Amino acid sequence: MDKALSEIYSELGISEKTAAFGEEVLKGLKERFARIDEIAEINQLKVLRALQKNQVSEACLHGTSGYGYNDMGREKLEAVYADIFHTEDALVRPQITCGTHALALALMSNLRPGDELLSPVGKPYDTLEEVIGIRPSKGSLAEYGVTYSQVDLLGDGGFDYDGIKKALNDKTKLVTIQRSKGYQTRHTLSVEEIGELISFIKNIKPDVICMVDNCYGEFVETIEPSDVGADMVVGSLIKNPGGGLAPIGGYIAGKKECVENAAYRLTSPGLGKEVGASLGILSSFYQGLFLAPTVTASALKSAVFGANIYEKLGFSVLPDSTEERYDIIQAITFGKAEAVEAFCQGIQAAAPVDSHVTPIPWDMPGYDAPVIMAAGAFVSGSSIELSADGPIKPPYAVYFQGGLTWPHGKFGILKSLQSLVDKGIVLW
Ligand SMILES: *Cc1c(COP(=O)(O)O)cnc(C)c1O
Description:
Layout: H1 3-11, H2 16-27, H3 30-53, H4 72-85, E1 89-93, H5 99-110, E2 116-119, H6 128-132, E3 147-150, H7 161-167, E4 172-178, H8 191-204, E5 209-213, E6 232-236, E7 250-254, H9 256-266, H10 282-312, E8 316-318, E9 330-333, H11 337-349, E10 371-374, E11 387-391, E12 397-401, H12 406-422
Parallel strand pairs: 2-3, 2-4, 4-5, 5-6
Antiparallel strand pairs: 1-7, 6-7, 8-9, 9-12, 10-11, 11-12
The structure holds pyridoxal-5'-phosphate.
Pyridoxal-5'-phosphate is lined by residues 98-100, 103, 125, 127, 178, 180, 182, 213, 215-216, 236.
């Protein structure tokens, strides 16, 4: 190892043994990293092409105030998103407060009383349980008379096509497909798999709206779910597409009618996309989007590195050390609460902000178990920045993601390992 590198690692609390182990693991990852860089290159050019095609100009970077009529920067940004996702339209707004809000908005604006929502890929993300009303909540879809049905994945992770066929009925209006594993230990769906599922569903019921929860998936592959038949793709700007610079926001890209419904619900019937001042936020949305492909690549490298480190140490990791990646999340199952806490504390100690604080588990709104989160981020709660979280419940798995730069991601993983070593959980 480079002498200057080993010196600075040592100053930052990484022992020689931990650092050497990291370098050894890294030696085997050259080809993986080269492939990640190739995908980033394609996506970088895809973003650039969309910016150029829409003739984004300096004036687009300045926002509007008040009602926000004729906000050219906002309108062009939405056109840029639509071009990247190959959709008819897009809604990209700071008024969409987070990923859950974007998903709730897409669902609530496109479903009407008496309709049914189907999830053919098992239980959706924790926070959506209250949106749907799986766990009763004020204002849920259930309260508005929208029913829900769910078909779980098969034991081998495949789609239960028979079950899905049976579940589709006259009332089924919208199908929600979560690309990423979220807080589950299932595998993440590839865009290709999502395409197969959508074709199957549309063959049975062509008019059903297929929505994909795209959180954490953007720019991981060279195609997106909207390239394989999804009518709507939905996500958060404090994840991949914000590139770490967007301080808030969400997006919905899709069919004109779906996006229009969402816009009318976000602002007001009659107003739709025409209002919504962008204030001073647009330059961070544009620049973040521009950086998003390489930022996503850094996050992917960090995830692959982490999987290889922890698999070699005997922990169960998902995806495993060699698997193809379809999102930026890495799950590691530790089997005990202390290890989840030690891991998250190590990630926190590696952060550029708040590295001196110690995260502890707490009851977060929207989650049904205490969650520990490590997030020393420039943007509060941003999970495209190196972050880790784990619900304190069996199987005591930790999920980590992000890393705006690969050197930081690498350091964070080494720091997490050092924390486990220091607590006597990993024994050299
Ligand atoms: C993060 C995430 C959400 C919710 O996003 P928030 O911004 O945390 O509200 C929904 N679905 C998936 C798969 C996610 O990863």
